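Tokens as discussed.
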């Protein structure tokens, strides 16, 4: 056993209560128990300015007379950390302890390090940098969001026979500045490899950060960790006249590069990461600069790593304390020509388990699905971000829009729960939901004159995301855990709606009408956001959008309350939703089914959320179809409604028009992205314009929510009960396709759905889990019911699917089955 180690406090469980086989240490301890006896340690000296903060290395030596039977290390940090045992990196977790709302929740990791130990002298070493804790966050690069002092706490438990001893962080540890000169998740990492072995060690300080006193924050993350996943070799390496080398990896991703050609000692190599090239073939970052506001300078995206070589063969630079969104890397300062084996791009993302696939006879649809998946994966670095370069925020709006698609692609239940806990942690006392979670980089931003939090469609992630998890996976616990957050958000919206009126409404109607108590038209609103060819009006009345979300979220909370058996609350929120719907109809719907603000987005939202009176739905759908046709069969939806558009058309008898939009090759369209070389989904419809110029982020997955139409309408797989306890199969074939297929691993077993068409005959091969009630709706309007198993169905293609004017035979709205009422 080790010398100079401390024994843990006695466990409270009596020996006779223990199982016959002693469980692993990692299975018996809570995070607080695991770190018992260890203290938070910190570097000495003053805190350097943000952007100039080095990587700190903490170490402790200990001797082992013999190797233990078990060796488990627990650790966490205020900052991003790596751990090494005898010079070997422990585990494969990246960017630990991850993104979290540090004031309320801090995740602890554990590692099995038995195989890394040796008899005699052993070294335990950590490398800690700013990370999310005190690094620059968000596009405006606000540092020190949770504190100004990085810190580390760790405990190594060594068990031999029945005896366990611990080596924890204490004042006996040493600290030094290592070879990481500076590191920031957004700016990049600067390493001088000549510093290796030349550290100046000194005693650590005990941390004075007040957050370290709160052991109630400590938890184990429910989510899979971030790991290094896909690797990409260069598709080309070019040297410009300036000497700069441009490396193209052929795919936009999130992560870092591994560089194995570093040059002679003292060679300073810069690696700048970006998504696009300018007309001269040089890297451009212009599309990623952040606009702060009038009379404010643009903020560059950063994303620059620097390495200084020590000239030792075999050295590799792989910056593990930063991450970037990129396809291209500009390499400056390296005289040697890079070959394809000298540099590799490595994607960093949460290690999500894939569960769903889609394929069709049309390669453009397959490519669209693949770029949506790539965009989603590039934005899953421990939290669902909006983009992996300029902002990297856990934006509420993006995951609200994409949750249904994501839940089909991957098992996101634990991943989303972790993020929802941050959202709940950061919910304001009033019930307001911030636009980003964890909340950092904007709350303290001196350039923001008003709060942007609490916008409709963004704050509603608090209700929509938990409901989508329940819809997909069927576990009531997610609703139970987050119901307080969901209800408080809707209560906040109800209060704001009842107590405020937009100035334009006051001018139009000085005395408020009774229904206005349920019109939400005040506070900051992003509105539809990024509608093509629409100039955003920051102060316009967006009540038609916000009230729609008010009604929708209130109904979701009512349904969730019904599922949980909370009958009083179910009645309360159902009444609130009913009144909000009535107010929306009174204020915004005309007698002929048209609306006062006749945009594709507003018609789509009204149909998708079930806001129109039933007798007006055909007229509203016809108005939507007319707007699309008048626009040259092109969409004009923006951020919030694009994912709802095609399902709303198909559910209301316009399947042909939905497919016309899907295959539209004129801008704005998804196919335009493909035609212009997109490898991920763009933020703006003109992300790359007709002249080849780049605009905004080229990696925002929200518009990729269209793939839910591929899963649920083209292939036709839908849950008829939460978690696919019952299944509905309702394919929408179309003359543009001769086949489509999808698979989905559910909690009850795998669904395999594959259809083909030939000579006006539709043939469906279907396998669903045995015992799972399956309703199959065929294109000829007939339906069959099975109890699972493998089946073959045929039908005529003479069907309402091609009519374009009659209602669909399927009609499951994007809002989902009202399971809470059952």
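Sequence:
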């Amino acid at each position: 056993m080790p010398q100079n180690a401390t024994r843990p406090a006695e466990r409270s469980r009596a020996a006779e209560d223990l199982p016959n086989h002693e469980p692993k240490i990692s299975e018996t301890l809570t995070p607080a128990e695991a770190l018992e006896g260890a203290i938070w340690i910190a570097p000495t000296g003053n805190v350097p300015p943000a952007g100039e903060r080095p990587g700190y290395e903490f170490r402790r030596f200990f001797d082992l007379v013999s190797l233990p039977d078990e060796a488990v290390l627990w650790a966490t940090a205020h900052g991003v950390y790596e751990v090494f045992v005898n010079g070997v990196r422990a585990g494969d977790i990246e960017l630990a302890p991850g993104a979290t709302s540090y004031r309320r929740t801090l995740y602890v990791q554990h590692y099995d390090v038995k195989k890394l130990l040796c008899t005699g002298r052993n070294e335990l070493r950590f490398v800690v940098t700013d990370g999310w804790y005190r690094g620059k966050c968000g596009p405006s690069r606000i540092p020190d969001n949770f504190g100004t002092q990085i810190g580390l706490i760790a405990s190594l438990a060594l068990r031999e026979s029945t005896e366990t001893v611990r080596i924890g962080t204490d004042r006996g540890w040493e600290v030094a500045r290592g070879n990481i000169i500076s590191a920031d998740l957004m700016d990049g990492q600067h390493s001088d490899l000549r510093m290796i072995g030349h550290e100046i060690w000194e005693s650590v300080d005990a941390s004075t950060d007040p957050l370290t006193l709160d052991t109630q924050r400590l938890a184990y993350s429910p989510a899979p960790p971030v790991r290094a996943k896909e690797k990409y070799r260069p598709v080309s390496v070019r040297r410009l006249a300036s000497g700069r080398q441009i490396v193209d990896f052929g795919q936009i991703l999130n992560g870092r590069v591994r560089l194995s050609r570093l040059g002679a000692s003292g060679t300073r190599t810069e690696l700048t990461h970006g998504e696009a090239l300018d007309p001269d073939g040089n890297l451009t970052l212009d599309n990623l600069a952040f606009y702060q506001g009038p009379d404010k300078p643009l903020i560059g995206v950063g994303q620059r790593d620097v390495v200084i070589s020590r000239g030792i063969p075999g050295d590799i630079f792989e910056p593990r304390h930063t991450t970037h969104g990129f396809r291209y890397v500009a390499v400056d300062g390296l005289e040697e020509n890079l070959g394809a084996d000298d540099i590799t791009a490595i994607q960093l993302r949460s290690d999500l388990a894939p569960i769903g696939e889609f394929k069709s006879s049309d390669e453009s649809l397959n490519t669209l699905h693949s770029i949506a998946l790539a965009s989603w994966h590039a934005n899953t670095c421990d939290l669902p971000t909006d983009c992996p370069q300029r902002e990297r925020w856990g934006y509420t709006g993006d995951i609200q829009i994409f949750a249904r698609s994501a839940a089909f692609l991957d098992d996101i239940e634990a991943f989303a729960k972790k993020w929802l806990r941050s959202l709940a942690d950061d919910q304001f006392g009033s019930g307001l939901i911030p636009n980003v979670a964890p909340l950092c980089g904007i709350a303290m931003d001196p350039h923001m004159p008003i709060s942007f939090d609490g916008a409709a469609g963004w704050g509603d992630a608090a209700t929509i995301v938990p409901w989508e998890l329940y819809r997909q996976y069927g576990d009531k616990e997610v609703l139970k855990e987050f119901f307080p957050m969901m209800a408080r958000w809707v209560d906040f919206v109800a209060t704001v709606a009842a107590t405020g009126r937009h100035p334009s409404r006051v001018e139009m109607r000085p005395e408020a009408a009774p229904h206005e108590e349920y019109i939400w038209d005040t506070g900051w609103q992003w509105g539809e956001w990024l509608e093509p060819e629409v100039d955003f009006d920051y102060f316009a009345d967006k009540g038609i959008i916000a009230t729609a979300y008010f009604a929708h979220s209130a109904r979701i909370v009512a349904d969730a309350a019904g599922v949980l058996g909370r009958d009083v609350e179910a009645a309360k929120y159902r009444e609130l939703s009913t009144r909000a719907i009535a107010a929306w109809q009174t204020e915004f719907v005309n007698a002929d089914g048209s609306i006062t603000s006749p945009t594709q987005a507003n018609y789509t939202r009204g149909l998708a959320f079930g806001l129109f009176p039933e007798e007006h739905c055909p007229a509203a759908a016809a108005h939507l179809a007319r707007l699309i046709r008048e626009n040259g069969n092109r969409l004009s939806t923006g951020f919030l409604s694009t994912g709802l558009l095609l399902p709303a058309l198909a559910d209301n008898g316009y399947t042909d028009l939905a497919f016309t939009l899907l295959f539209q090759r004129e801008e704005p369209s998804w196919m335009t992205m493909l035609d212009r070389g997109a490898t991920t989904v763009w933020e703006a419809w003109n992300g790359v314009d007709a002249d080849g110029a780049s605009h905004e982020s080229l990696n925002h997955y929200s518009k990729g929510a269209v793939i839910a139409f591929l899963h649920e309408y083209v292939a036709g797989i839908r849950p008829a009960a939460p978690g696919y306890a019952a299944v509905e199969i309702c394919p929408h074939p179309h003359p543009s396709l001769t086949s489509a297929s999808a698979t989905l691993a559910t909690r009850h077993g795998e669904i395999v759905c594959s259809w083909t068409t030939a000579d006006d005959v539709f043939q469906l091969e279907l396998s669903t889990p045995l015992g799972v009630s399956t309703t199959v709706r065929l294109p000829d309007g007939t339906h069959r019911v099975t109890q699972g198993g493998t089946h073959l169905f045929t039908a005529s293609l003479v069907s309402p699917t091609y009519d374009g004017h009659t209602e669909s035979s399927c009609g499951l709205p994007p809002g989902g089955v009202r399971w809470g009422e059952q």
